[in-house]
């Protein structure tokens, strides 16, 4: 910025020299400082601004962000099938209770949180997620515990059929299932299950 007034001062002091000599000498003498001082300062400012914006961006996913349900990349309560035990602890902390659930193929360890159960296989990978309380955020836009089953079916694209107590949707790697109250047809539980369970 200081370089701009200098050419104006020189051009007003000696107009003929500025027309003939200063463009060459000013471009030669002023170009290096402008290139080294001028662009560096805006680049640093731009980098700092970009850094500030990029540092804000990673924090945004940590804040719950509802999205529409994706059958090709399903998640429930911000967890996906195949996540590790460390991913679960990072989001929800250590469980309040754990217990084994024997299965024919392998034993699943169930981690209990308030209104949320997470099942881990013997390789510490998530194979089961269940929400059984309104206090747990589903992470799916407009899908909530306690909502009408017909609304949930429409939201997820599940064809409405006869009156049923379970809504099922095949998803990548498994199933999304919603248990409905037999009397009210409200959602009692939301489950994301590995295909092998």
TrEMBL record:
<feature type="compositionally biased region" description="Low complexity">
    <location>
        <begin position="25"/>
        <end position="60"/>
    </location>
</feature>
<protein>
    <submittedName>
        <fullName>Uncharacterized protein</fullName>
    </submittedName>
</protein>
<feature type="region of interest" description="Disordered">
    <location>
        <begin position="1"/>
        <end position="69"/>
    </location>
</feature>
């Amino acid at each position: 910025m200081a370089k701009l007034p200098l050419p104006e001062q020189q051009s007003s002091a000696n107009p003929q020299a500025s027309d003939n000599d200063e463009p060459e000498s000013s471009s030669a003498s002023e170009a290096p400082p402008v290139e080294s001082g001028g662009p560096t300062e805006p680049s640093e400012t731009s980098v700092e601004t970009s850094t500030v914006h990029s540092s804000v961006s990673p924090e945004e996913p940590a804040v719950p962000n509802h999205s529409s349900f994706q059958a090709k990349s399903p998640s429930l309560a911000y967890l996906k099938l195949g996540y590790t035990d460390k991913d679960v602890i990072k989001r929800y902390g250590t469980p309040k209770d754990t217990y084994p659930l024997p299965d024919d193929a392998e034993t699943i360890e169930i981690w209990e949180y308030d209104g949320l159960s997470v099942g881990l296989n013997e390789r510490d990978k998530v194979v089961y997620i269940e929400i059984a309380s309104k206090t747990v955020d589903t992470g799916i836009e407009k899908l909530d515990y306690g909502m009408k089953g017909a609304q949930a079916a429409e939201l997820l694209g599940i064809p409405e059929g006869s009156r049923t107590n379970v809504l099922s949707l095949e998803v990548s790697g498994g199933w999304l299932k919603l248990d409905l109250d037999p009397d009210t047809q409200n959602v009692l539980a939301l489950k994301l299950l590995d295909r092998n369970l």
